[in-house]
Each structure stands twice: as structure tokens, then as C-alpha cells.
Amino acid sequence: MTEYKVPLNDMDFLLYDVFNVDEVWRSLPQLAEQLDKDVAGAILQECAKIAEQAIAPISREGDEEGVSFKLNDNGIGGKVTTAKGYKEAFATYAEGGWCGLGGDVEYGGMGMPKVLTAFHEEMLSSADIAFALYPVLTAGAGLSLAKHGSEGLKEKFLTKMYSGQWTASMCLTEAHAGSDLGLIQTKAVLQDDNSYSVTGSKIFITGGEHDLTENIVHLVLAKLPDAPAGPRGISLFLVPKILVNDDQSLGEPNKVSCGAIEHKMGIHASATCVMNFDGAKGYLIGELNKGLACMFTMMNFERIGVGIQGLSAGERSYQNALAYAKDRKQGRALVKNETTKSANNADSIMVHGDVRRMLLNMKALNEGSRALSCYIALQLDYATYGSGELQAKGEALSALMTPLAKAFFTDLGFENTVTGQQVFGGHGYIREWGQEQLVRDARITQIYEGTNGIQAMDLLMRKVVGSQGKLVNIFIDEVRSYLQTVTGDSQLTEFAQPLSQALDDFSQVSSALIKQADVNLNDLGVAANDYLHLFGYTAMAYIWMKMAQSSLQKTTQQDAGQSEMFYQSKVHTARYFFTRLLPRRLSLMATINTRSDCLFNIDDDLF
Amino acid sequence: MTEYKVPLNDMDFLLYDVFNVDEVWRSLPQLAEQLDKDVAGAILQECAKIAEQAIAPISREGDEEGVSFKLNDNGIGGKVTTAKGYKEAFATYAEGGWCGLGGDVEYGGMGMPKVLTAFHEEMLSSADIAFALYPVLTAGAGLSLAKHGSEGLKEKFLTKMYSGQWTASMCLTEAHAGSDLGLIQTKAVLQDDNSYSVTGSKIFITGGEHDLTENIVHLVLAKLPDAPAGPRGISLFLVPKILVNDDQSLGEPNKVSCGAIEHKMGIHASATCVMNFDGAKGYLIGELNKGLACMFTMMNFERIGVGIQGLSAGERSYQNALAYAKDRKQGRALVKNETTKSANNADSIMVHGDVRRMLLNMKALNEGSRALSCYIALQLDYATYGSGELQAKGEALSALMTPLAKAFFTDLGFENTVTGQQVFGGHGYIREWGQEQLVRDARITQIYEGTNGIQAMDLLMRKVVGSQGKLVNIFIDEVRSYLQTVTGDSQLTEFAQPLSQALDDFSQVSSALIKQADVNLNDLGVAANDYLHLFGYTAMAYIWMKMAQSSLQKTTQQDAGQSEMFYQSKVHTARYFFTRLLPRRLSLMATINTRSDCLFNIDDDLF
Question: Which parts of the sequence belong to the Acyl-CoA dehydrogenase/oxidase N-terminal domain (chains A, B) (predicted)?
């Protein structure tokens, strides 16, 4: 596999050319104190080093070896051993302080905003999704604990999670309760010491057991015996693998055990565990019966994080495929010209239109996803660090676009891994090249943290219809205002015209669906997936136009020097996106506008 | 995994309701002798039994165990051992005479037409693609040998291939020569006894070595020392693993060895071998320097066969996903009605629009692919057994539609395996359910036997532009004539109108691209993939309309009885295809109509 190279240029471009985040940071008191362009630059560069040098090299072998499980001698639960090199890589990562990058500064975190932690997550996941899951889930659990945990819990557990001495897991799913958490059966019973006795079995628990750290902090959804039925009776508990004394030293093992690990299509080096709680001691996080809300604190961050995992696999796939395409010689160009670099008998496959199509699909969708994820991360930062209108808008847009990020970026990421594999021909199917691993690893991102179908329903039903269009109109208005600022700029017409058309169509479709909610909800259930993608391509067109604008300004200024090629490439890629990828919306429009009869008029027995 | 059930009803429907093949058979003298509805029915039923009972059960374990390779003591080459149960399953299969199902009756074959062998291949591959490859490639090699081999070679080798005592392999690819066979370096030197000494190394050779049979017949592309450069200097040789005496008994081992096997994403139970020929004794097949033509005899059959493999994985995926969806309970229906079968706390996920969308996508695309593959198989049968105009048209349409079948069915098949996996949620990612294996197995079908990008170029450049539209107009005229026969049938308007529009658009796009070939060939290279898919959806719409018509006649006649539900389901599924899937063509039209500038104006260094 080609060595992974973090796209730092592109990240800098987004931060400073497109989104002017240094100005944003100066305007937000909490961030202004501790962050500027230099600090951010140092963070991204150091993080890139770790991703490229410490993590990427273990990924291929980690896939082959996977994690292993050995039952304990007493027959209750077993131990998980990670693949060669993972323990050392995690230690290196933790020593760098990266586990607390986005953490609360009061408990030893670095307090960095999402625009930086999002890039951090991309690097980690491009290097190895399986590795990234251990720290990324710990960071997510940390967010929930930081916001909802008691002072005592935070001092005892959060500090150790930030330092990377302990990791965390999120224990939600049960065998019969996947997307439908209201059905969970894990029980929690109050004890005399105000702790809870937690009993139940959870499946699909990422990092539920492993040998990377001495302790694991489980956040567990459970119900009190007298709790209300359904989602409104769920509470969140912190259940440590090993009990912790007041001085943070480790005490007795808790009644938590790993019953088995799953054998999966990919992310072999990530332990996916069956976790059994057998009267384990747990501590309530937040209020009773408000567990889902506590969980959702981390969900918004994690779902964008999973979206970014999709992008990360797509980026890696592109880098590998590009290197292969430049090197591989097969066939001759259809049109010979001076740029065709002929070998004796064959040209590089870069001369073939279909290969260029595949490469540019990946490039345009990856860079578009990165830019859009940066935009959404910025909204989360406004929501967290901003105030007044800015904060309100940040909250609205991040709520709206979280399911979009999760589903759209992972669908595109998976597509891009498959495309990159195709560039390799037969070699893409062979394990040693690593392309097929990317396909297998990326595939989970469309499934976990809420399937993409669930995300589409969240977007359309809860966010769009639920707010009667208020949230989506905030986005539409922003784009419309932006388009007004560039009216008459002839250099931008090629982007402004199709974006404007796409926006009008998207707006019309959104309104129509909101109305349709009063007529037949099934029409919305059926349209949700296509609607999410329509939103995605429209939003991506907006961001691609902004990138093209920034790049055109730079190439015109001719201050670009070495990086002039970078800006030229951006403009070309923007053009490609508008010409060849934005038209995907036409088919989506056509199907969204049909009704659900042709799906619901068929009796189940006729399937 | 759900037990595989061969869709015999659908196969019968296509053969007799839609394509009236019993009449066709009666009209073709060579087939009329040996084949009628009863014989065909017995063949399909027996074959279904083998697929369901002998082959499907070994697939899951075959994936886990894979094939193993052990180097010989002398260090030259090694032995391949297949997974548990494969030897027995192959023996059962061979004893049934299935290896010669489509073979030449003069040498012990059963002489069955492609419409039947195509269904046979679908069953085999649905049961286990990895297993199917051994007999299917042997059948393909048999076609080439039957058509181009000398009497002596056929008596000696073909009879044993039909009986299943020996298998065959196709040795084309070399490390530096994948899609570009003109670059091969394997040499063949004439010997005193008129045999050839073959020397060279081949990669990606499916079934190049294994323990299923005592001998393996390799068909090897090689060049004579003084052969013309490029594709016009390629000859085809038969090189047995073990030399064969005149009485068909086995003699000395030939100088052929397996150097290694590949570790792949899927089809683990299929041996993909590096084959080394070190002065091996070989026999010329056909004329010198006409090797590619001999190879292409089997290519047209094999490529449709690979297309059918895509369908086969999609069919299996659908069967599994449907069973899971009916069983799995999560969430509640958006709209409650009398058909909503509520459990205590959750409905079956069949109530969710997005799940129905996924299931119907699979159903409509699978059944459409099966019908279209049956149509193309019929064209091949006209070409083989017909005469005069019928034969000419069969040749034209099968030449035109072979690359379509290969690429379109495998792209859809892969999509359907991914969709089926998604229906399972997290369980789709776990190995034990088998859904992820289908994804991994299906993925190769888009790559081997000529990547789908190569197929698209073959379709557009060689078949459409190469004939100046003659071939594609034969298809367009047929559909137009068909549409005229149903003018005024109000029951069919919902299908006729969109089909007519799609056909007009496809015709216009085809003409435009043929003209564009004189302006800029790169525009065609860039459009090829989308053009292939546009053709696919248009052709599938034609076939779906024919299926809807046949089914409506049956439901109207009310002679359907038990099978009335079958015909109702067909009509509903046709409606779904036209409403929700045919609109995919709109985005394809939009991109085909753009030019290649935005791909070729970017310098390679800007990627």
C-alpha cells in the first residue's frame, strides 16, 4: 500500500482560506485564550506524524491478525488480545496527550474545537479505522461524562480518560434492541450506597474489552425496575471494568465480563464485544430516565465522527489508486497528444477517460466531504463556544446536518473505496494491496452509530418536518444570501447558476415533503434516503462553490507561488463536481417526487 | 443464513410465459430433437436440487477455510487443497453429468441451449460462486476447444472435461498484462513432434491447481518467437497438467507448476493461482496468431456467465434479507393500518418505507437482470442454432449485449448484496449471517473477465461506434416495433409511455455519441460507463414491460390459480421499477451529454 500522507494542505486551505477560522477563534473568548493559527498548525502537524508513522503502518497486519479472545479459566468471560503493535501505538498516542484533545480543560483536556478534532479524527481513521475507534469512542464518552457527570465522577474517571490511561465504551445495543433502544432490558437497581446494581447483556460493544489499558469505563444504558416503558425510561450509568478507589487507584474487578467477540467483515483489529453485566456496580450519569439525552450529547459529535471515518477511507483509497494509476501501464490513449507519456508499448492508465472519471469522482467527493464536514464542525463550535444568534444558528445547523454528515459521507466514502479498488483491477481484489481492506473497513460506517436509513429518517422526520422547515430554511437562506453576494461575478457564473437551481429545487422538495407529512407519512419514509442525498449534493455544491471562489481569488492574486497548482486543482475539481456529480440530484428529485403507493400496495406475502 | 431456494417459478415464467422458448425450440431443428418443456423442467429441477442440497451448504465453511497451498518438497511449485466438502460436492456434481450440460453432443455433452445453461449457472453461483467457478470455467474452455480444437484434441480432452473427470483453466493474464493482452510475454516454440514448448508465468489463474480432479487442462495464450507484435501475434495452446496417453490414460507430469495462490477479499474457496510453464508441452488450438479469436469464442459465453454471477449473489442477498426483515422487530409503523402486524412493542421492519425500498430495489433489479439475461441467452441460442435472418439478428444482439450483461448485472448484483447487508443492520457486518460474504464474493464479478470499465468501452467503441449504430439500432427497432403492437392498450400505458421516452432518449444519445467519435474520442471514453448503464436501464424497462404484459394477461385470464400471487407480484414489481428505478437514467443522461474537457484539462500533476 502507498504510504499515507495527511492532506494538511487541504486542511489549511479549509481552515484559513475558506472558513477564516483564525478570525472566528479570535472572536470566541473561550477559544481566543488558548488557540491561534500557530497552535493549530503545530497540533495538526504533530498529529499527522503520529497517524502517518505510528498508526498507518500497523493497519495491514492488524487486519490479518485481528483481535483474539480467550475464555477465562473460571469460564466467566474472557480476555481480548489486540494485534501486534496496537498496544505500543496506543501508548505512543496516549503519551502525546491526544486522548484529551477535545476534552474539558478543567479535567486535563486540551479544549480544542471540533474543526481541529474533526481533522484529527480523519487522520486517525485514514491511518486505521480499527485503531481509531478505541480513542475516538473514549473521547465521545468523555463528552457525555463532562457534560452530565457529577464532579466526583469527572475527577475520578474523566482525567484518566483524557490521559489515555483508561479507555471507554458505549453500551447501548442489545440483541433484540438495535435501532430501537426503547426495547432494552438491562436493569439497574439502586443500592444502599447510592450506586446501582446493573444487570444485562449488551452486544456489538466496540472496545468493550481489550489489553490496551488497565481499565475500561463503560457507559451503559439501563432501566430502573419501575421506569416508564420505552425510551423515556432509560438511564445512563458509568460502570467501570475495575472498581476505582477514591485516590484513583484500582480496586476489585467489577462484575463485568466479555462473553465473546464478533467475527466481522472488516475492522478486524477493533474488538466488538458481547458484554455481560451481572450485578455490576454502576453510577448514575445525569438524571434518572434522561439517559438518552445524555447519550445524545455524544451522539452529535460521534455521528459526525463516523461520517468522517467514511471520508477517511475514501481519502486513503484515492491516494492509493492515484499512485497505482500513475504507475500502471495498460493500453494506449484514445487521443494522442503531447501530454501522453508513452512507454514502449503502453501508456499509464491515467490516459483513459474512465480511469480519470474514477479518480476525479473520488477526489471531488472526498474534498467536498472534508469541506462540508469542516463547515458542520464549525457550526458545532459556534453552538459550543458562541453566544446569542451565532450560537442559536450553530445549534440549528449542526442538529440539521449531523445525520447528513453521518450518512452522506459514509455512503460516499464507501463508494470511493469501491471505486479506488476498481482502479486497481484484479490487484484491487488481492489482500496485499490493501484496497479491499478499505472497502471492508468502510462498510461498517454506513451501519453503526445508527444505520444510514435511521439517519435519513432523523433528518427528514425530526429535523425537517419536526421543525416545520425552520432548520432547513436557515441553511437555504444562508446559501441564498451567499449567492446574492456574488451576483454579477462572471467568473463564478458556472457555479452560481447550477447551485441556484439546485437550491430552488431542494427548497421546493423540502416544502412539498413537509406538506405531505399531513397527507401520508409513508411517503416521507420512502423518500427519506433520497432526500438526504439530495440535501448532501446541494450542500456540497454550496461548499464547492465557496472553495472555487477562494481558489480563484488566490490564482488571480498570483501570490500563490508553490501552491498555485493547489488552487488550480481546486478550481478544476469544483468544475468537475458541478459538471459530473451534481447531476446525480436529477434522479433523486424524480424519485422523491413519487408517492409510496408502489411500495405499500404490495402485500408482504408478494415479496 | 437462510436456506437457498432456486427461483424455479421465475425461471419457468421467463421461459414459457415471456419468451415462449418451447415454441422457439420446436422451430430450431438441432434443439427440437432433444429438448422440450418436460426435458427442460427435469433438468432445472434436478439442477436446483444439487445447488440447494449439495453446494449451498458448503459455501459458508468454504469461505472460512479457503483453499490452502503447500510447497512441494523439491521447491518447484506446490499443491492446492480445497476446503472441506468441495471434493465430494464436485464429485456429486460431475456424476450428475452437469459438466457437459452445454457441451457438444458428439463428445458426450448434453447440447443444451444457453437459456438453460444460464439458469444452471445462476443456481450454481447463488449456491456458491467459489464452487461454481471450477465447472463454469471448464465449460467455457470446452466451448473454445469444441469450436477450434482438432479432432484429436477433442477426443482426448473434451470428453474428459464433459464427464467432469478433468477440469480446465484459462491462462491469459500476466503480471504486466491484464486488460492489455497484447503485452503478454509467454513464449511457445515449435518442437519436432509438432507440439510446442511453452514457457512463461501467468497470474490470477482461477482453478489453475486444485485437488478436485486428477488432471487439469490449461488453455494458455502465448506467442511464437517470430510472432507479430501486439494482439495479432497471440496463439492459444492446450497444456495439460499431466500428459495424456493416446488411450486417455495419464502419463508423466507436464512442466507446469503452481507457484503460489492469492489471498483475496472473497471467493476464498476458489484457488487463484500463479501458474508457471517451464518448457511445458502444449498443443496449438486453432490457427497460429489467431489465439484471441479462439479465446473470444468462450468470452461471449463467459462474460454473460459472470454477469449472471452478479445476479446470483443479488438473488441470494434478497432471499436472506427478506427472511430477516420479516422476522426482525424494531420500531413502529409510521402509518398504522390493518396490515400492520404488531408485536407487543415493535413491528416487523417490513413496515418501514426504507426497508421496503431496499427490498424492492433488490427484487426489481434481480428479476430484471434475470429476464434480461434470459433474453440475451436466447439471442446466443439464435446465433448458435438459428439460420438466416434470425441467426444474424441473434449474433448482432448478443455481440451488442454481452458487455452490457457482464457489467450491468454485476454492478447491480454488487449493489444488491450491499443493500441486502444493510437490511440486516449490524448483523449484516457479522460473518456468521453470510451477508458480508455475498458482498465480498460478488465484488470480483465487476473486476474479472475484463473490468466493467473495459466492458463499457467494448460496448460503446467496438459495438456501437464500431458498427456505426447498426447493432444498437437493431435493438432500438425491436423495442419500437414492440411498442407499436401495444398502442392503445390502456392497461399498458403506464409502462409504454416511460419506455417510449427512455428509448427515444437512448436512441438520441447513441447517435450523438457516434457523431462525437469524429470530434473527440475522449468524450466517448468518459461517457462509456454511464452509457452502458443507460442502455441497461432502458433494456431492462423493455423486459419489465414484457413481463408486466405477460402477467397482466394471466391475472386477467384468471387461469392462474395458485400462481395468481406470482403474477400480481410481477405487476407490482414492474410498477416499482418504472416508478423508482428507471429514473436513474436521468442523471446518466445529464452526464453523458457533458464533454470530456473537465477530465482532460487537468494535468496529471494536479490530481
Answer: 44-165
